[in-house]
Specification:
InterPro entries: ARM-like, ARM-type_fold, ELMO_ARM, ELMO_dom, ELMO_domain-containing, PH-like_dom_sf, PH_domain. The chain contains 29 helices and 11 strands. A hairpin with a 2-residue loop joins strand 10 and strand 11. By secondary structure, it is an alpha+beta fold. The chain has helices at about 30-40, 80-90, 95-110, 115-120, 125-135, 140-155, 165-175, 185-200, 200-210, 215-220, 225-240, 245-255, 260-270, 275-290, 295, 305-320, 335-345, 365-375, 380-390, 400-415, 440-455, 465-480, 485-495, 500-515, 520-545, 610, 620-625, 650-660, 670-685; strands at about 5-15, 20-25, 50-55, 75-80, 545-550, 560-565, 570-580, 590-595, 600-605, 625-635, 635-645. The strands form 3 sheets. The chain has a 4-stranded mixed sheet. A 4-stranded antiparallel sheet has the order 5-6-7-8.
Length: about 725
């Protein structure tokens, strides 16, 4: 009989004792359970004992967490948390250095448990640890253990970081600033200061004033991954606690000291794999770097600012270099104003006054900064973009300014400019640490990509939003690959053409529908022969129905009609001339016949004799795609029957039908589309009963045959 649901079977162990296998009733008070366990080992005073999980962090069992005990759990009997705390705090006050070290070791092991931590804190344990840290009598293992235990206890949030004294914080700062210090102490001191900075603005200012940035740079350059990680953690904490102006000043100083280059070469490209914690801090640093762009992103253009008006004029002049602007040319002020307005429109501004386009926030002035950066650092690409598009038809023109404004918004969204940092994210882009002015450089690549995609899509002004959606996908997919440099990003994003994006979308849609799962692909392969037979049958029926074709004379006039069809028994092609406006003839009335057995081959396009003889004019090129011929035996000579299909679809249907008649494969685009449509429909019909049933990647294994077949029914035995 199965035990009740609130009873679990567990093992309880104790040093130098035989373990007990008991059935723990979760409804029974924990004190009663402890007394029963102690009685089994003949132990008195059960209140002095407690139960712990034997594995992991050896957490104490309490009424709150006892539901975590499952069947098969192993517990151990140990000293109660309050008595353990008394003993360890007594050990901390021992005159023996060895006793203090052992007490700290045990304290570090137990400090992560909330029950034990509350007992230590309630007995002024944090103050005693603080005394050990402030005295600093032993700068080696004892100090490291004291810092670790202090951090573990504070992490529970029972005591606020703001309660720490200024002398205590300054003492920890001194450990960070000290040159000759034990390697295990400084990472812990840096970690403690990081928590102080993030939790207390007042003490954070103290840390900022006491810990020079140069000192953190020294720690970052030490080839010790733990020390580097903690130094980066404190650096990002200080940057997060600073005002925007202070943050910009600090980052400018760090960049002058080549921090970006060091991170790129010695941390990101280090031989040692990047840890999760360092990846998070690099993400935070990247977010703070990009956050410096937020004020420009939130500031609209000021039409009364002389500097901003000059920047707009510079943008126009670099693109057009108009000679009609100078006063000496004799143009009136109205004429020059009209010329400027026209050139601003050629630049792609929606309004003759470009300031109105840049009043939108975001992107505000950040879009102007991007356009200016592109025009100054890639002037040939900028001029080519503008002049190439201004020479196109108006509807096919890719507007530079409008594209730049929208692209700046898009980049800010993809890179989350101005958004608060996540507490767990790790998705930084290495290329932002490999390049100065990385955001503007990224824009230069993206704006050229947009122009390339615009041409690939043959877009018009009405397609602007569609183009932006494709560019968003191109940029997002490439950023997700985390290219290590801007050049690698440029290569990868340019390889992701519009056609490739469409192919990826189709593949992902099929994956989502499950049509690319191995069992589904196998089913599709099995269905193909049957469906190809269906398509073959439809093509032959189309030939039997027949079709009117036009004859093309030597003067390229299509003024005569003729009709061709296949006999119902598929053995003869019948054809003959038809008067325009007359009804379709019956197969029996057609005067000419070609036995299918006499047909040698099917010719298409330029191989057809009636197209080959007509030269290479533009009109002939249009006919190449619709022309086909059949060669057949006419007595002892080879003759041709030449066709010009009315449409591309009719061309595919007739060439497929003739190929099917000759036993050749049907390889037209129309056959591929029809087959895909039929496969999709048939597959969905076959899988209707399996809706919402997961299909395994591989078939289940076939079990081995039984050792004997004695269980089989013997049909020869006659029942009485």
């Amino acid at each position: 009989m199965a035990p009740p649901r609130n009873v679990v079977k567990i093992a309880v162990q104790m040093p130098d004792a035989i373990p007990q296998l008991i059935q723990l009733d979760q409804a029974k008070p924990l004190a009663t359970v402890l007394k029963e366990v102690c009685d089994a080992w003949s132990l008195t005073h059960s209140e002095r004992y407690a139960l712990q999980f034997a594995d992991g962090h050896r957490r104490y069992i309490t009424e709150n967490n006892r539901t975590e005990i499952k069947n098969g759990s192993i517990l151990c009997l140990c000293t109660a948390a309050d008595l353990e705390a008394e003993q360890l705090l007594g050990g901390l006050q021992s005159s023996s250095r060895e006793a203090r070290r052992e007490a700290l070791k045990q304290l570090v092991l137990l400090a992560s448990d909330m029950t034990f931590a509350q007992e230590i804190i309630s007995r002024d344990g944090l103050q005693r640890l603080g005394t050990i840290i402030e005295d600093g009598d032993d700068l080696g293992e004892v100090l490291a253990l004291g810092l670790r235990a202090f951090l573990e206890l504070m992490e529970h949030g029972v005591v606020s970081w703001e309660t720490l004294s200024i002398p205590f914080v300054r003492k920890v700062v001194s450990y960070v600033n000290m040159n000759l210090m034990d390697a295990s102490v400084q990472p812990l001191a840096l970690g403690l200061l990081e928590s102080v900075t993030l939790s207390s603005p007042a003490l954070g200012q103290l840390v900022k004033s006491e810990v020079p940035l140069d000192r953190l740079l020294v720690h970052l350059q030490v080839m010790n991954q733990q020390l580097q990680t903690k130094a980066m953690a404190l650096l990002t904490a200080l940057l997060q606690g600073a005002s925007p102006a202070e943050r910009k000043h600090m980052l400018d100083y760090l960049w002058q000291r080549n921090l970006r280059q060091f991170i790129y070469k010695n941390i990101i490209h280090s031989a040692t794999p990047l840890g999760d914690e360092m990846a998070h801090h690099l993400y935070v640093l990247q977010a703070l770097m990009l956050g410096l762009l937020e004020p420009r992103m939130r500031t609209p253009l000021d039409p009364y600012s002389q500097e901003q008006r000059e920047q707009l004029q510079a943008l126009r002049q670099v693109a057009f270099e108009s000679e009609g602007e100078s006063p000496g040319t004799g143009l009136s002020a109205d004429r020059r104003r009209s010329l400027c307005a026209r050139e601003f429109r050629k630049l792609g501004f929606s309004n003759s006054n470009p300031a109105q386009d840049l009043e939108r926030v975001p992107p505000g002035l950040l879009a102007l900064d991007n356009m200016l950066y592109f025009s100054r650092h890639a002037p040939s690409a900028y001029s080519r973009f503008v002049l190439e598009n201004s020479s196109r038809e108006d509807k096919h023109e890719c507007p530079f300014a409008r594209s730049s404004i929208q692209l700046t918004v898009l980049l800010c969204e993809l890179l989350r400019v101005g958004e608060p940092c996540s507490e767990t994210a790790q998705d930084f882009s290495p290329m932002f640490f490999g390049q100065d002015q990385s955001f503007h450089e990224l824009f230069c690549v993206a704006i050229q990509l947009l122009n390339k995609t615009w041409k690939e899509m043959r877009a018009t002004q009405e397609d602007f939003d569609k183009v932006m959606q494709v560019v968003r996908e191109q940029l997002a997919r490439t950023l997700a690959l985390k290219p290590t440099s801007l050049e690698l990003f440029r290569t990868k994003v340019n390889a992701l053409t519009y056609g490739e994006v469409m192919r990826l979308r189709q593949t992902e849609r099929l994956h989502q529908e499950g049509t690319l799962a191995p069992p589904i692909l196998e089913l599709r392969e099995k269905l193909k022969p049957e469906l190809m037979g269906l398509i073959r049958q439809q093509r032959l029926l189309r030939l039997c129905e027949g079709m009117l074709f036009r004859k093309i004379s030597s003067r390229r006039r299509q003024d005569k009609l003729w009709f061709c069809c296949l006999s119902p028994n598929h053995k003869v092609l019948q054809y003959g001339d038809v008067e325009e406006g007359a009804s379709l003839p019956t197969p029996e009335s057609l005067p000419e016949q070609i036995p299918v057995a006499d047909i040698r081959a099917l010719l298409m396009g330029k191989d057809c004799p009636h197209v080959r003889e007509k030269g290479s004019g533009k009109q002939n090129k249009d006919l190449y795609e619709l022309a086909f011929s059949i060669s057949y035996d006419h007595g002892e000579e080879e003759a041709y029957l030449n066709f010009i299909a009315p449409s591309k679809r009719d061309f595919h249907l007739w060439t497929d039908g003739l190929n099917a008649l000759l036993g050749s494969p049907m390889s037209s685009e129309q056959t591929r589309l029809d087959l895909e449509q039929l496969l999709t429909m048939e597959t969905k019909l076959r899988l209707l009963e399996l809706e919402n049933v997961p299909i395994p990647e591989r078939p289940p294994p076939v079990p081995p045959p039984p050792t004997n077949f004695n269980f089989c029914y013997d049909c020869s035995i006659t029942e009485p």
